[in-house]
Amino acid sequence: MIKKETPHIDRTETVIELRHLRKSFGALTVLQGIDLDVFRGENVVVLGRSGSGKSVLIKLIVGLLKPDSGSVRVFGEEVPALDTRALQTLRKKIGFSFQGSALYDGMCIKDNLAFPLVRNKRNLSRKQIDQAIEKVLDDVGLAHTVYQMPAELSGGQKKRIGIARTLILEPEIMLYDEPTAGLDPLTSIEINNLINEVQARYKTSSIIITHDLSCAKSTGDRLVMLVDGQFLRQGKFEEVFDTADIRIRGFYNYNFILDN
To answer: Given this model, what pLDDT does residue 260 score?
Structure first.
C-alpha cells in the first residue's frame, strides 16, 4: 500500500457544513440531528453499517433529497433553497463516484469520458476533449483502455473509469459511495491509493461513504462513525475506535482485521 501523503487541509475554509440535519422516511428516522464540517482539502470518511443512512447523507448534500429540518451548506450556499439552475451549477463542482461505476455499456471508454464534457462544456474543441480524456485516463492508470467497452473491464477497472469520468470535469468536491464494495482485497488497495492520489493531484475535498475499515484507515484524514442516525465519535482512526462502546467495538471486531 502506498503511504498516504500528508494533505494540505485548510481548516479556515469549510466547503460542506451540515447543522442539525434530520431525515425520515415515513416512520423510519434515518438521520437524527447530524452536524459536520468538511474542510478544504480534507478526506472525511463516514463509517456505518449498511442501511445506517450513509448514502442518504450524500444525497442530501447534492440536493437529490431534501432534509426534514436542519441546514445543508456547500460552498456557503443553502442547498435545499437553490432553484434548478443554481443547483445544476453547484453540482458541476461536485464529483459523485457511484457504487456501481454507472458507465454506459453501449459506449466505449473514450465516449463514456467524453459524454460529461460534451454535455457540460459545449465550447470545447474535439482536440481539447481528446486531451482531457488522455489526461484522466493516464491519471487513473488506464490509458490503454480508451477504445475498450465496459464489459471488457474488470470490476476495479470500471471503478477507476467511473472516477476518471467524474474527474474530467475537475470537481472541487468528491463524493465516494462505497468505493471498494465488491472488490477483492488487492483491488481495494488500488482504489484506496487512487482516492489518495486524487486528493493530492486534484486538491479535492472528499466524503467517502464506506463500511470497509481498510478503506477508512487508508484514505481518511478524519473519520465519523454513524450509528442509529447520529455521529457517535469522530477523529483519527485510532481515536474513533479507542472506546468501550459496544456499538463501535462490535463494528470494528466484526469487520476489521489489519496488520499494523
So the answer is: 40
